[in-house]
Amino acid sequence: MRSSEGEGRGYVLLAVCGGIAAYKACEVLRSLQKAGRDVRVVMTEDAMRFVGTVTFEALSKHPVVTSLYGNPGDPIPHIRLAEGADLALVVPATANVMAKMAAGIADDALTSTLLATTCPVLVAPAMNVHMWRNPATQANVATLGKRGVRFVMPDSGMLACGEVGEGKLAPVNAIASAALGALGDDDVPRDLEGVRLLVTAGPTHEAIDPVRYIANSSSGKMGYAIATAAAARGADVTLVSGPVSLAAPAGVRVVSVVSASQMRDAAVDAFHDCDAAICAAAVSDYTPAEPADHKLKKSSEPLSSISLVETADILAELCSVRGDRPVVGFAAETTDLLQNAERKLRSKGASMIVANDVSRDDSTFGSDTDRVAFVSADGVEEFPCLPKAEVASRILDRLSPMIRVAQK
């Protein structure tokens, strides 16, 4: 039974789990209401220890389901809630509830409702850093992702327990934005539905010894903007990321790597099952030939020179096996921008090169804007200085028809 509210649409099912971040679910609810969405709430018993049902009932204007029993006039509340939902949003998702979701356990009102849903599911985890990093939790996240569950990955920062690391609930606006995107309320084209896309981002660190490394400059912002925009347009995105201080984009599968060798292996492995690739990472061109297994001491082991060897050319390797699949590369240049980008297009065999003049203050590493040009066999298209999100959108505008042609 669908709700008659919200212009004939169903509602958002907000599933609130027992964690200190449960109070943030109230803010998520209000954000969705401001966007014109009706919200219904189901809670675990543990969640009620942090925020009472009265709060959610007052905000949502609907009864809150906390048990499979004792619901007047509705003997099967979990089925009713599941059937009427356009989206199930789990905030905050605890390690325990995600484990139950992965195993198909339905031992309370919340997990029974989630098991009965046929609508999209979006999960925003929050927990202690060690619980988040635990292999069991990561395996459950991977399992749910393979089943189509989307994630708004946790941020890094100071946690309620006092530790610092991943596990902090993503910002409310990020969760609400991801929910509206999943509902199709954000006016973003869904032209990448069903497309499997590989994106590489960030730098690589090539070890000199356990505490020193060489690297190219990169904040990862461009690659992350592309992954975010692609996921919003419906793509199944695998983001192979070097070391960055950015939160994982909502609904994106992130493979974290450190070295160029690791990035090469992860990218090649992911590309087997992808329809296209965008190589935005600033991969180090060289790596120390013989990294030390201990910290080198200046007093006894002076580092007067470093013997280097070339790293694998990831873009060239992907292009060599791409077939008809489009592969987009980047060229960060300080001089002769277009000439160098055209040379790279030919030598690598890429579908398109995004040329970026990093000598400019508004287009350099770490900036929030870029002034780029698209270089392809069709010619050169230059753009004014734009926010990275807009650059990402325009890259995808060019990539989308390439993918459709390749899939015919």
TrEMBL record:
Reactions this protein catalyses: N-[(R)-4-phosphopantothenoyl]-L-cysteine + H(+) = (R)-4'-phosphopantetheine + CO2; (R)-4'-phosphopantothenate + L-cysteine + CTP = N-[(R)-4-phosphopantothenoyl]-L-cysteine + CMP + diphosphate + H(+)
Example GO biological process: coenzyme A biosynthetic process
Cofactor note: Binds 1 FMN per subunit.
Positions of region (Phosphopantothenoylcysteine decarboxylase): 1-196
Domain named Flavoprotein: residues: 12-178
Active site, UniProt feature: 161 (proton donor)
Residue ranges that the Swiss-Prot or TrEMBL entry lists as coiled coil: none
Keyword Lyase: yes
Chain spans, region Phosphopantothenate--cysteine ligase: 197-408
EC number annotated for this UniProt entry: 4.1.1.36, 6.3.2.5
Domain of life: Bacteria
SUPFAM superfamilies in the record: CoaB-like, Homo-oligomeric flavin-containing Cys decarboxylases, HFCD
UniProt GO cellular component terms: phosphopantothenoylcysteine decarboxylase complex
Pathway terms, separated by semicolons: Cofactor biosynthesis; coenzyme A biosynthesis; CoA from (R)-pantothenate: step 2/5; Cofactor biosynthesis; coenzyme A biosynthesis; CoA from (R)-pantothenate: step 3/5
Domain DNA/pantothenate metabolism flavoprotein C-terminal as annotated: residue spans: 192-400
GO molecular function, a single term: phosphopantothenate--cysteine ligase activity
Residue numbers binding CTP: 285, 295, 330, 344, 348
Needed cofactors: Mg(2+); FMN
Keyword annotations of the record: Decarboxylase, Flavoprotein, FMN, Ligase, Lyase, Magnesium, Metal-binding, Multifunctional enzyme
Record-stated family: In the C-terminal section; belongs to the PPC synthetase family. In the N-terminal section; belongs to the HFCD (homo-oligomeric flavin containing Cys decarboxylase) superfamily.
Role this protein plays: Catalyzes two sequential steps in the biosynthesis of coenzyme A. In the first step cysteine is conjugated to 4'-phosphopantothenate to form 4-phosphopantothenoylcysteine. In the second step the latter compound is decarboxylated to form 4'-phosphopantotheine.
HAMAP family, per the entry: CoaBC
Protein name stated in the entry: Coenzyme A biosynthesis bifunctional protein CoaBC
Organism for this UniProt entry: Olsenella porci
